[in-house]
Design a protein that fits this description.
The complex is a heterodimer of chains A (139) and B (148).
Chain A: E1 14-22, H1 24-34, H2 44-49, H3 59-66, H4 68-74, E2 80-87, E3 99-110, E4 114-123, E5 126-127, E6 129-137
Chain B: E1 18-19, H1 22-31, H2 37-40, H3 42-47, H4 60-73, E2 84-93, E3 102-115, E4 118-128, E5 134-144
Antiparallel strand pairs in B: 1-3, 2-5, 3-4, 4-5
Classes of the chains: A alpha+beta (139), B alpha+beta (148).
Amino acid sequence: MSAPRLDSLSVGDVVAEREFSLTRDSLVRYAGASGDFNPIHYRDDVAASVGLPGVLAHGMLTMGFAVQPVVDWAGDPARVVDYQVKFTRPVVVDPETGALVTVVAKVGALTETTARIDLTVTFDGSTVLGKAQVVVELA
Amino acid sequence: MSVNPELQGRVFPPAPPYLVGREKVREFARAVFATSPIHLDPDAAAEAGHTDVVAPPTFPVVIQEHTLAQLLAEPDAGIDFSRVVHGDQRFSYSRPIVAGDELTATLTVTSVKTLGPHAMVTASSEMLDSSGAHVVTSVSTLVVRGGE
């Protein structure tokens, strides 16, 4: 797929937006794929025993899917050369209704060869990732 | 038990080489809701100029699990796993990971800071391919909550 043209981008442009619907199944699938079997991500009793409001999504799962709209926009995952986040709030995944997480990807900065895409990742009215920045090489 | 400040600067022996499998890349890609065919379909990846499917940007966490396990198992580290919270994470690539890569990761503890009863440990896993060329560095900050 062809890459977006750098000269067509301006800081502040929204390049992608997507909603992700997580269920407990998503967490079990991610546990298996990643090898992170911490039981706070699938057992209510363990989550409660360490004072959590419920079973939480893996921070790395949220980081993992939040970049996908940018990968699709960039056209090739190989164009993502740097990706960082801070984990600021947990995503609680209800056993029945799951959790709905929204990702908005905006141009944060441009250089001669790269676009920095800043992600706003929201759950239940609050952002859950801080300084979520993806550097995409476009030239 | 508290985090040993002398961990700062410690370099661990390289973890055993990790062979990136095509089906593992696909399994991980599905688990992070990836839709790009370049993660899933070898033909689409070849069309884009890659030798096999390309791993999602956060895939190195699978390999980082092995290096962080070395750190948590270090007898004098003083890190209680049940008190660890992931603070931040970064991946910096020299080239993408593709299925067939054999990656060797070496962990360095780049910083240990204490904040009252809590500690923040930053660990960097540098991943090289079988020719010794740099592929990606994965940097993780773990927040270790102090005892009550």
